[in-house]
Amino acid sequence: MACPAAAGVAAIIRSYYPELSANQVKDILINSVVKQDGEVNKPGSTDKVKFSELCVSGGIISAPNAVNMANNTKAKKSKKALWQDAGMGKTPKTRKAKVVTP
């Protein structure tokens, strides 16, 4: 699942900041992860290893962290990007339900 998740977050970043290069997006993805401590089973064996030994970043991808980190770059934000504006990380506003009487 790591590749589809990383591709999705990269797409979000590129939609917000189309001026960022592929290397800049890669650096943002790697540096914005949520670090994972502890040990996990090494694939194909019962050996326990640190999570950081199994991947480059040592963490799990975080879309909000990545977008915030991209926001701190000098790249211009696209006015057409909707991800955060669509409510990511915000409590949705509740609407009063209309009562329909038959």
Characterization of the model:
- 33% of the residues lie in helices and 10% in strands.
- With 102 residues, the chain is an alpha+beta fold.
- The chain contains 3 helices and 4 strands, in the order ααββββα.
- It starts with a helix and ends in a 31-residue tail after the last helix.
- Helix 1 (2-16) runs parallel beside helix 3.
- The strands form 2 sheets. It has a two-stranded antiparallel sheet with strand order 1-4. Strands 2-3 form a two-stranded antiparallel sheet.
Q: Please give the radius of gyration in angstroms.
A: 19 Å
Could you tell me the number of beta strands?
4
Largest sheet: number of strands, sense, barrel closure: 2 strands, antiparallel
Strand content: 5-15%
| Helical fraction | 25-40%
Lateral arrangement of strands in the main beta sheet: 1-4
Shape descriptor reads: extended
Blueprint of the fold:
Layout: H1 2-16, H2 22-31, E1 34-35, E2 39-41, E3 48-50, E4 59-60, H3 63-71
Antiparallel strand pairs: 1-4, 2-3
Helix pairs in contact: 1-3
Question: What's this, in brief?
Answer:
The protein is of the alpha+beta class.
Question: Tags for this entry?
Answer:
102 residues, alpha+beta, two-stranded antiparallel ribbon, two-stranded antiparallel sheet, 3 helices, 33% helix, extended
